[in-house]
């Protein structure tokens, strides 16, 4: 589709100062703030009113949580480096950083599923064990789905979607920037989930 | 935000510095959780560190610093409703404590 049909796909919109795709992505992130905000609100409600175990009583391993935090923070850096590489017209470097981001994200998911969810389920700890585990599975599960969504988008741009780089490098770089914005938001949510569930 | 080639080149070093800061703050969060303080202080410290980390991510990785005010207004609106959502259970908790005090 040409940019005449969809205006401001590359050049900034005079009102927002950014191309429309990026502004749309920010609006989406604002709605995501509401989604996770509602769940954090539910967490506070359950923590203050429900039968919540203390941090020592839960089986959550803070070392696994810290490792996953480190993986996500690193993936945020590789993501922004991917965007910078494409911006500097270095596509092979950009692709490498994007693959690294995918690798770190998959590592996050594997650790989460294999060493946390499956381990707990094996020991009979499921969402109906207590209100703590109900909100734990709900919030970390939704966050995990966001990670999965991001991985799918990144794989799309690395494989079939990479053709856009040859046709229109600027538009491709903009799309990587939007993917990055989403990815940093997912990282940001985990930055709050980690202390809330593993340390407090 | 960093848009020209030269600006992007300069930003790369900044991204690595922010990465270092985020790593250090994660270690600080874990160490702070082992301090022998009250729950309220522990919650405050952990969330304060998380807020600093979140601000670093939003400011530098999401390039929020150089955007126009239109975007800030959208985000201020989202932040307002987010705080409202967070305050609802806090207010309910205060109300419950007040009712329990009245009964006893």
What does this structure look like?
- The complex is a heterodimer of chains A (200) and B (104).
- By secondary structure, chain A is mostly helical.
- Chain A contains six helices and no strands.
- In chain A, helix 2 packs antiparallel against helix 6 and helix 3 packs antiparallel against helix 4 (131-158).
- Chain A starts with 19 loop residues before the first helix and ends with a helix.
- The relative contact order of chain A is 0.15.
- The model of chain A has no long low-confidence stretch (mean pLDDT 91).
- With 104 residues, chain B is mostly helical.
- Chain B folds into two domains: 1-67; 68-104.
- Chain B is built from three helices and no strands.
- In chain B, helix 1 (5-33) runs antiparallel to helix 2.
- At the A-B interface, helix 1, helix 2 and helix 6 of A face helix 1, helix 2 and helix 3 of B.
Features:
heterodimer; A: 200 residues; mainly alpha; Four Helix Bundle (Hemerythrin (Met), subunit A); 6 helices; 0% strand; elongated; B: 104 residues; flat
Produce a short descriptive summary.
Helices cover 76% and strands 0% of the residues of chain A.
Helix content of chain B: over 70%
Number of helices of chain A: 6
Q: What is the terminal-to-terminal distance of chain A? A: 50 Å
Number of domains of chain B: 2
Chain-averaged pLDDT of chain A: 91
| Oligomer status | heterodimer
Structural Rg of chain B: 19 Å
Structurally, the number of domains of chain A stands at: 1
Percent in helix of chain A:
over 70%
Poorly predicted parts of chain B: none
The CATH C-level class name of chain A: Mainly Alpha
Profile the largest sheet of chain B. Answer: none
